[in-house]
Amino acid sequence: MAISPDSGEHWANEGAWEVAPGIHRIPLPLPMDGLKAINVYVVQGDDGLTLIDGGWAIPVARELLDKCLRSIGSGFGDIKRFLVTHIHRDHFTLATVLGHEYGADVALGLPEKPGLDLLHAAGRGELEGGNPFSAVLRSAGAGAVADAWDLGRRVEDLPDPIDWAYPDIWLEGDMTFDIGSRSIDAVHTPGHTPGHYVYADQADGLLFAGDHVLPTITPSIGFTIPPEPDPLGHFMRSLTRVRALPDLRILPAHGPVAPSSHARVDELLTHHEHRLVQCLASLSSRDGSTSVAVAGDLGWTRHERSYEELDLFNKGMAAMETKAHLDLLVVRGQATETATDEGVVYRAVEVSS
After folding, report:
1. Do 95 and 203 sit in the same domain of this protein?
2. How many domains does the chain have?
3. SS3 call for 283
4. Number of other residues whose CB lies within 10 A of the CB of residue 217
5. Residues 72 and 104 in one domain
6. Strand (E) positions, the chain?
């Protein structure tokens, strides 16, 4: 499943791969074990290039993007705009750095502004505790993980304001961008982050899906600042919005190009409904559970690893994602929540026969 049809090679292999006339996919490396690369999409227009996402602002990614653009007869100076899908650093930071240097506009969803505000405060040392995820981790019952994340922070890990500059264009609601002969719809799809957008070229049957619809993995839910109420509910409703569009070819941020947005959306909705059933079963097995306790009853990654097998970072991610599922059970009336000093405690609602 890792082979992408546009290249005939592993999807993360270096190159500027043509996915449609005038559109190239450029995988850029990521310095992490889980995700090998991010796909940046280059759309050629009459006034220059539009890039969907920008990559992570690290030297190796910048150098490879420059090399791949040159291979198709372009360069950084030809970039007119970046349409960023969401605020996460592997999508946003290289876009904002290059946009500032070369005068290209950067567009980002307006609901990401509170997160950018917090990152700027953290970079100035004004955020209490130094870790913007501390509060949500503690509410998930992951106080030990929050402490470790705080202690593990170094000065060089603090957000650099250059990497997190505010965008030139705030996206509000649904919008349309005309790029040469193409009309690309920016569709607000909150869930993975509050301001996530997908970009749909309906005439050519293409969905620049960001992290909303990934072909081989499920995007993280709950890994956002400030914490959002009911992020999983937002994500699933956003999936139904994409399902209401025509069936489009998926151009994902991570993974190979895939043939059907409808088929993958159906799989993602089924996955999360199954996960909700598992969470409710865990709650029903005991009188009161934190998100961490429920996470300990679940399998993680496609290899179904236990929570205790995860590294420190992924334990935090798992705790926050479990909390998102439990919060949706509360919204659906299937669970209750009580705030305690050890985190939010959830209980299954007994169904009378």
Report:
1. yes
2. 2
3. helix
4. 14
5. yes
6. 3-4, 9-10, 17-20, 23-29, 37-45, 48-52, 79-83, 105-109, 169-171, 175-179, 182-188, 197-201, 206-210, 249-252, 335-340, 343-348
- Establish if 353 belongs to a structural domain: no
Residue type for position 245: L
- Give the domain range for residue 273: 268-348
In this structure, are 196 and 272 located in the same domain? no
Q: Tell me: the pLDDT tens digits for 108-133?
A: 999 999 999 988 887 666 655 557 78
Tokens, residue 51: 């890039």
Residues 44 and 152 grouped into a single domain: yes
Mean predicted confidence (pLDDT) in 213-218: 96
Q: Is 212 left (phi over 0), alpha (psi -120 to 50) or beta?
A: alpha
Residue 56: both structure tokens together? 């992570």
Backbone phi, then psi, for 272, in 5-degree steps?
-75, -30
Question: Would you tell me how many other CB atoms lie within 10 Å of the CB of residue 243?
Answer: 16
188 touches 171 (CB < 8 A): yes
What lies within 8 Å, CB to CB, of 136 at 6+ separation is 222, 225, 227, 320, 323
pTM attached to this predicted model: 0.94
